[in-house]
Specification:
heterodimer, A: MetI-like fold, 0% strand, B: MetI-like fold, 2 domains, globular
Amino acid sequence: MKSANRARLIFLLPGALWVLCFTLFPLVYSLGLSFTDKRMGRRTRPGEFIGFQNYRDIFQDNRVAEVMEMTIFVIVGSVLLTVVLGTFIAWLFNHEIPGLRAFRSILTLPIFAAPIALGQLGMILFNEQSGPINHMIRGVGLDPVYWITDPWSARFAVLIVDVWQWTPFVFIIVLAAMQSIPNELYEAARLDTSSAWTMFRRITFPMITPALGTVTMLRLVETFKILDIPYTLTGGGPGVSTQTYSYYIYLEGLRFFDMGYASALAYLLVITAIIISSIFFWRVRHRYDIE
Amino acid sequence: MVGQVSLKQSVERIALWAAVALVTLIALYPFVWAIITSFKPQRDALQSSLIPFVQFEPIIDNWNAELGRTGRENITALKNSAIIAVGATLIALTLGTMAGYSLARFRFGIGNRNLVSWFLSQRFLPPVATLIPFFLLLQRLDLFDTYAGMIIVNATFVMPFAVLITRDFFADFPKDLEEAALVDGASHVQVFLRVALPIAGPALVAAGIICFTFAWNEFLFASVLTVREAQPFTVKIVSTGTVRGIHFGFVSTRLLMAVVPPLILSLFVQRYIVRGLTMGAVKG
């Protein structure tokens, strides 16, 4: 079986080396950078070793405290809303609905739209003077909302666009989980109760809990990355009220070119991502083995 | 009581259908609104009218301006997006399929579960974390603002999809044919190329489409690593600000051009979406 031994490496190595080169190397490199004061642009510094200074600075940085407010708002809001709404919609579509496939295809469209374009779409939908959303709000006799100029309204605008894009993601996954529940379970329960809520609580919910766990983790990781939507929708404003942590790293590193500090900021995010992904893969990795 | 539907049941059915219709409307409305607005003159775009010919006179000026002679930069950017996304997809698919095949057919000492997790885990990495190293690396390699640089970056990000989908496909597919060919004296590479690849067609297409859409939609790295020559459309639509306020028609037209190719392609990969986007954790 010597040939099999060689063959498996011939197949595996190109991809593995690519990932080593272009994922592991950058990660190690930015870990190194995070211990230096490297800066480019106007006040260039070559980057001397300064130990943990950048990491200490993070905890003194008022801006970090400010962007954390938006970051936590978006993470908690988006994960919670997409999971709850997505589960509810999955439950709706888990009834006998003719043309389910077509509906499913339509509902999943938002997932595939470029977030940057959705930010632009949001920018006109939420336009304060003439956007359709304020038209509607005026139409029902309410005062228009200052989606772009009021800090909390702007945060909600970003949240709404993100939730609109990612609720379908939760929907299709939870629907897949619901459809794999054997019908006999429901039929047996129907002898006891006819309440839809009781059926959901006693049967559907326990059966979809693993899928909900998976989807929550995936959403969590995804919300840490949010940057494109506020970038175009609000430009991080008003002030810094819709700047997320990722957005702040981007500005520090590539607008102000304070690369050492930005790398340290980024590394805290990397550590968080490693923790979440370890839990995720520890749970699902048995699926990757072969018989 | 066959044939008789109770009042409660029919109320429930109506409520269900109303909810289904409402959800579908909410999912589609922004796109529909953008399509309608792209056919409106600015004056009408600021009104809440929705019905063409009745409420406003549709025009194609916006599309002409964005795609015609004045929109040459848009065409270039769309072409750049296509070149980068196709290039990245080809690399990711080639390397990813080979890796996916080996992980489905051979046993590795470290444990296949760990190797696959390692390949997939980089989907979890926050992209901003590798942005600065890539920026410095591409400058050092003289690949800043080039197709090659952007293709390398995007191939890296989308490769997990290719590994995942092809591995899943081969793992579920009986290996009898391949074993028969091996007994007949074919080498492993020949078996892969002549037996395994041809049957994997649908999976390869699906993986390719998912890779393509994610590379097409990428913005963050493109905004930092390109300035002119290799600038893709996602960066282009942001940089073309309008001087006097927002022109709704132009913005709608541009964002539709960015969004339509992936949306159409997504219709062909429905079977693979759930697996693809959950790293295989949920079988859809």
